[in-house]
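Hey Z.,

So I finally got round to the MGD thing we talked about over coffee. Here's the setup:
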Amino acid sequence: MSEPVNSSSHYRICPLCEACCGLEIRTEGTRVISIRGAEADAFSQGYICPKGVSLKDLHEDPDRLRQPLIKRDGVFQPASWEQAFEEIERRLLPILHQHGPDSVAASLGNPAAHKISLLAYFPRLARALGSRNVFSASTLDQMPKQLSSGLMYGHWLSIPVPDLPRSDLLVILGANPMVSNGSLWTVPDYRGKARAMRERGGRIIVIDPRKTETAHAADEHLPIRPGGDVFLLLGLLHTLFDEALVRPGRLAEHLAGLDELREAVRPYPPERMAAGCGISAERQRRLARELAGTPRASLYGRIGTCTQRFGTLNSWLIDAINIVCGHLDAEGGAMFPKAAAFAANTQGKPGSGKGISTGRRHSRVSQAPEVFGELPMGCLAEEIETPGEGQVRALITLASNPVLSAPDGPRLSRALDSLDFMLSLDIYLNETTRHADVILPGLSPLEDLHYDMAFPQLSWRNHARFSGPVFKKPEDQPEEWQTLLRLTAMVSGQDWRADVGAIDDAMVADDVRRLAGEHAEAVLRALAPRRGPERLIDLALRSGPYGDRFGLKPGGISLDQVQAAPSGLDLGELQPRVPELLRTPSGKIELAPPSCLADLSAVDAALAAPAPRFSLIGRRDVRSGNSWMHNLPLLAKGPNRCTLLIHPDDAAALSLSEGSQARLHNDQAALTVTIALSADMMPGVLSLPHGWGHDLEGALLSIAADRPGANVNALLSATARDPLSGNAVLNGIAVQLSPLNA
Ligand SMILES: Nc1nc2c(c(=O)[nH]1)N[C@H]1C(S)=C(S)[C@@H](COP(=O)(O)OP(=O)(O)OC[C@H]3O[C@@H](n4cnc5c(=O)[nH]c(N)nc54)[C@H](O)[C@@H]3O)O[C@H]1N2
Ligand SMILES: Nc1nc2c(c(=O)[nH]1)N[C@H]1C(S)=C(S)[C@@H](COP(=O)(O)OP(=O)(O)OC[C@H]3O[C@@H](n4cnc5c(=O)[nH]c(N)nc54)[C@H](O)[C@@H]3O)O[C@H]1N2
Ligand code: SF4
Ligand SMILES: [Mo]
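And the result:
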């Protein structure tokens, strides 16, 4: 095919999921001509999925907001940035002054993890606000894993990932990387890597209530009862001790609590656990032997294991199994990446540290403990609804759509209507932002620079990559970090009209003085003339583990070098990091955290609980990204994706057939759903994806509204949580199903 003349080629890291693929984007003038995987990318090597291609649709979407909106008499009106900030000042500041910091809540959504503008600058706003009421998608997702990692290794983001290229056995529990493209495991082209591993004799076992795409591409699928993971994991660990298979190897001298762990799992033989997880005792024992007997192996668990009542126990037990088998921190096992920038586990004194603490504050209404600086998303509605000292009266959402993504969205939606003021930083007028009084839009991803702060800490291979804007941003539209700095200035009583560069300079100078002491001025000079996120990236890279230390480490890297490598820098395969990575006070890996041991007492009662007739789980789709990509033509086309999967035998028993409508209900809500038969489903288990329900009045999503789907989260309770991490229970929900009009 001939390329248009004048077209130019740009490198851009995709911000749409954790795989962080490098893309090659061809443009002509202001038009996108093509989007492909960047073959030369040091990390993703040409991989792309349909969502990456849809960045063109996102950039061009007429519904995407490009101007602030202010709601007057219930109707949104376009406004200038100045007017919008004035409105925020007029409405938000009196609430803050009269009712105090806790009266203003913040809700941070998934895209914030992919945008340095939001991730690096939100903490400034949060500090200036000083509210305990900070909520995020983390408690709808991975908080259990962050908590167990913090407890065991001393930092919230010390999370091991499978070293697939060198592995001979991978056991996947509650994850579907063929579709999700990996999570807490940045692994572009999982499919290709898994195929290569199996071609050289490796094996993959998938444990999931549904025979997923990942299970179809594996050697074996073991169906598990939703919520049954804790029983399986206890059964496995019991077996490892019982059959004398415990061989932690090199890690032995770095472990604390091995004896306590052995005692803790003694009451849980697989024979007792089989009914709870639906996997026979014999298969559990064999799986334990396979894991222990394969030198290069790992057990990887993801969102299916986190979004449960025992999310933290699952996350802890998964790592404990890897450790006692000698697979943690070992080649081909579960290894810790070493990010070039922003990783707390590369900062401070190696080998020990302060560890983590939780519960420094509690939520006002249900007394849920703070975890990693935030409260459970499930508490947001009650904090708005319940009158009294400390009641939430204003909310700031940042790239967050909890009306669709959080449990009991309809209740949250009503609560949002009762707020005195709501501000949304978002790129759409959608199910959540329609409740706002002011909406401030962010840039199109193609107008923004990109550096991943979080995902190199979770990557299959170490690397550093940067991409600049593909298009110039509109002249008068601020970048989101600038918007956040103005808000920060405003709530801290400074002049928000001041030059935003000067606000940034002052805050960075403070940071650098704290960090570099007497060398601060020299460091600041070395960082000049960069400002904004680029300055933060340069600072983090140069003071990071591969950095030039501002000249102290010749050959070390800086942002200049990363930018000069158009496809990124490869920093090599994962290397063992224990004990250097540990930040626990003991300097050991804590195998038996007291809070986990204490929560075991709830396992026995759960084991005795009867299974519901139908148990509901979720799923993801390649052409969908949580709640907000259903407005993009490329992704929206094709078959209806919001269907209820059911095993054919279950459907037959209820006289339901392919394509028929049914009523899915429980005490809280009832939904009308379209039936899709699937022999991949475990009998008794139903699957409905999340992020749908685009039929709410007042949203501006013309394509999504055509095929709205149903909001599964209407059936989920805001109070069902893992008590340790505050994470929501999103899977294994008891529901009933009946033919429509029956
Ligand atoms: N295409 C696409 N990609 C995405 C997203 C998207 O919406 N669409 N979302 C992104 C986000 S925000 C995240 S967090 C990641 C998540 O990435 P993954 O963790 O890979 O998420 P899922 O694909 O939902 O896979 C979870 C699996 O857990 C299974 N499961 C449900 N309940 C249980 C249970 O009780 N036990 C076990 N063992 N398994 C269970 C489900 O059947 C499902 O197959 O994906 C990201 N990538
Ligand atoms: N039942 C059930 N519920 C779930 C899940 C599940 O598996 N089952 N998964 C959970 C998980 S893992 C997650 S992460 C959450 C995700 O839920 P949320 O955190 O709410 O994230 P999204 O649904 O991705 O919505 C993102 C919002 O950000 C906006 N946005 C997109 N890009 C930008 C940008 O560049 N700037 C700004 N300012 N805004 C932007 C979008 O318009 C949208 O409003 O959902 C959770 N909910
Ligand atoms: S897998 Fe798709 S959505 Fe995820 S980063 Fe790659 S191209 Fe983007
Ligand atoms: Mo997520």
